[in-house]
Amino acid sequence: MNWDDTTRGAPSAPGTPAASDTEDRLVGSLADGEDQAVEAALRPKDLDEFIGQEKVREQLDLVLRAARARGATADHVLLSGAPGLGKTTLSMIIAAEMAAPIRITSGPAIQHAGDLAAILSSLQEGEVLFLDEIHRMSRPAEEMLYMAMEDFRVDVIVGKGPGATAIPLDLPPFTLVGATTRAGLLPPPLRDRFGFTAHMEFYEPTELERVIRRSAHLLDVHIEAEGAAEIAGRSRGTPRIANRLLRRVRDYAQVKADGVITREVAAAALGVYEVDTRGLDRLDRAVLEALLKLFGGGPVGLSTLSVAVGEERETVEEVAEPFLVREGLLARTPRGRIATPAAWAHLGLTPPPAAGAGPGGSGQQHLFGT
């Protein structure tokens, strides 16, 4: 997204794609164009409307209230966490609470220090700059950001070689809101310049039920409490996925039922879209089935497993594995990937005697691939 045509309420810049087909998955946590448009309509406008992340909301509310009381711009804010948990929404809420405009860009879009200098030099006093995937910024731009955040100044280099001259450029006070899915990749000098940092946690099913009921109301969809619970249980703890599943269940209810989302309707709809009771989709189950049926539960190397399911190595590692590990269905070990007893139970399969012996893969002497 180009920085100079974004304003308050603009959709978020896309997250880091793990694979080319990530956005095609119904339970993928990245947002495509349609998702961004719908999310913009469903986004809460202030902290009181924002559901979940109780500690983050409480802490952020104190930061913003104190800044308003002082008549100053808010401290720089760093939000970390998985895609789809509300980092972009919170950045827009920060701008709304401070009655300030917001400008949105992303780390991959800033590949040169001059790109960042152009953005910073055009900011208004008090403006909020939202920098998504901040860890993917180029190193020269990153180093320029240090001074901009701390001293509200940048040095623009004119010329090259021995004749190059640094021209200091003063900036108006502004608030930088950085978002990242990989906080560990941020260099300490950058991380330390944020006055407030927060980690976004995955949502509990009860919180997702509230998100779904609110979204259903805004979409003018009639949903029963049991229907909301059914969708929430398959949403991977992520509001973006919950809203996406709600829209697909709404379509099913309009075509196949009377438009009312009950538990039965939600279960039938998500069955059509191949999202099972734990939120696993086709790719997730393909990985588990290959691991269990072809390799006896492992250990098996990532490359071999990727070939077995017909996907790129990066797709399996960055798209499917994190959720399977978080659900306790798959474990990464030094010898390869292994299935846990829960994986056998979920697919209704009986493990061989040596399977499920624990993360060390005790009793399993084979290793498929690397």
Describe this structure in words.
Residues 204-274 are annotated as: Small ATPAse domain (RuvB-S). Belongs to the RuvB family. Keywords: ATP-binding, Cytoplasm, DNA damage, DNA recombination, DNA repair, DNA-binding, Helicase, Hydrolase, Nucleotide-binding. With 370 residues, the protein is α/β, with parallel strands linked by helices. It has three domains: 3-199, Rossmann fold; 205-272, Orthogonal Bundle (Helicase, Ruva Protein, domain 3), CATH 1.10.8; 282-346, Winged helix-like DNA-binding domain superfamily/Winged helix DNA-binding domain (Arc Repressor Mutant, subunit A, Orthogonal Bundle). 42% of the residues lie in helices and 13% in strands. The chain contains 14 helices and eleven strands. A five-stranded parallel β-sheet has the order 2-3-6-1-7, with helices on one face. The protein has a two-stranded antiparallel sheet with strand order 4-5. Helix 8 (225-232) packs parallel to helix 10 and helix 11 crosses helix 12 (302-309). The model is unreliable at 1-23 and 355-370 (pLDDT under 50).
Q: Which descriptors apply to this entry?
A:
alpha/beta; Rossmann fold; helicase; 14 helices; 370 residues; disordered N terminus; disordered C terminus; Helicase, Ruva Protein, domain 3; Arc Repressor Mutant, subunit A; two-stranded antiparallel sheet
